[in-house]
Amino acid sequence: MEFFNFLADCLKKMKSDDTLPRVTSPRMYNDGNITFEGLMVIFASFSTYLQYLNIYKSVWWLPNSNYASWKMHLIDYQVVVFILAMHCRRFIYCLITWVFHMLCPQHYWKFIRLFIRLFVSVILFLLLALLAFDLYFKYDYLIIMYLFMPIIGYLCYYGFKACPFFDMMCISEKEIIINGKPLIQYTNMHICTSNPKIIRSEVENMRDDFNNRLTQILFSSFFSAYYACFLPLVFVQTYVVYEEHWVLMHFPFVMMTMGMMLCIHYYPVKYFDHLHKAAMHLGRWKRVKLDRPHLPIHLWSEEVVWQQGSLVRHNQCLYKAEGVSNVAEPGKNADKVFYRIFSNPSETVFFTLASMQVSFMIVLIIALVISFQWHHIFYLSFVMLLNYVTLCKTLFNYRMTAKIYKLLKEKTQ
């Protein structure tokens, strides 16, 4: 009932604004960073356990076989500690940050957060270095290199920035100087303005923020799947026999599940509400041919907010404004893509995510039907449970945003 009351309020707001119709997404519950990182640690740790189960399970029911259900004595627990340390890094950082944020004064927070990152980085580095040093005497040095392959990739892309390694939300922060004082500006916040330069600058920041979040989601999902699924295979003894196809299939399943969970958390509905408003201010242009010579044609200017239906000439081409407000540069592909995606996120983003999750669920159901071993059924049931939760959240977001943006589209026509 509250949802339909919200839709009625949206209609009233749109009727009261004839210049630039818009709606504001409702406040929706979203897990906090500590809760979400805790769930990610549980899933990553349990995925690691399931991978070890796939590798070291035993046929204990046969005569002259192992007395236990799986061969735990073959597992190198130093490798397990290394994997768990990588899984827990963000959760520990978020927990320490939350405690200090509650206790420390706000004007010292910038230096305190820097100290926390330095402290956690040093402790993690010492722990990983100690474990790698002990493992060096057990295995070949080339195998030890597999421990740090994702970290090397991180350093190649981000350099020595510790922020993205511990906190994904810091990629939306940008330090600016106002009256000689450093302030934190969030690049994903929308500023309602009619200044064309500010709108284009805001769109550029939001585009970079969206791409940075997507990069972080892909990196984090690969990072977790690598340590949960691939690294246990590197340290398997040569005489251990396991199902290669099933063990290798574990990697894309975990990476896909991790990616969907990260998308739901770091791409909430409120985030796309800001992107949608920016896209409405940006507008779009359509290249046309001059059929009626008597129509007025203007030279495009970056200082003007062009109304719908305006004809402008830019770079020897003729364009027609199709948005309610148009400040985009005609012919610029980046602005076209931004408007196409975020003018209606329900049809682009949420529908795509829902389609991917439904397809993934079909694959999991097929794999569950053809499975007959107990650990396969146990593993698939666990993965399906998490994907059911993310699928329900995605479908709810799609249903809600589809109704809202449908009303907005009817208003603009």
TrEMBL record:
<comment type="similarity">
    <text>Belongs to the TMEM39 family.</text>
</comment>
<feature type="transmembrane region" description="Helical">
    <location>
        <begin position="349"/>
        <end position="370"/>
    </location>
</feature>
<feature type="transmembrane region" description="Helical">
    <location>
        <begin position="143"/>
        <end position="160"/>
    </location>
</feature>
<feature type="transmembrane region" description="Helical">
    <location>
        <begin position="246"/>
        <end position="267"/>
    </location>
</feature>
<feature type="transmembrane region" description="Helical">
    <location>
        <begin position="217"/>
        <end position="240"/>
    </location>
</feature>
<keyword id="KW-1133">Transmembrane helix</keyword>
<feature type="transmembrane region" description="Helical">
    <location>
        <begin position="34"/>
        <end position="55"/>
    </location>
</feature>
<keyword id="KW-0812">Transmembrane</keyword>
<feature type="transmembrane region" description="Helical">
    <location>
        <begin position="376"/>
        <end position="396"/>
    </location>
</feature>
<dbReference type="InterPro" id="IPR019397">
    <property type="entry name" value="Uncharacterised_TMEM39"/>
</dbReference>
<feature type="transmembrane region" description="Helical">
    <location>
        <begin position="75"/>
        <end position="103"/>
    </location>
</feature>
<protein>
    <recommendedName>
        <fullName>Transmembrane protein 39A</fullName>
    </recommendedName>
</protein>
<keyword id="KW-0472">Membrane</keyword>
<dbReference type="Pfam" id="PF10271">
    <property type="entry name" value="Tmp39"/>
</dbReference>
<feature type="transmembrane region" description="Helical">
    <location>
        <begin position="115"/>
        <end position="137"/>
    </location>
</feature>
<dbReference type="GO" id="GO:0016020">
    <property type="term" value="C:membrane"/>
</dbReference>
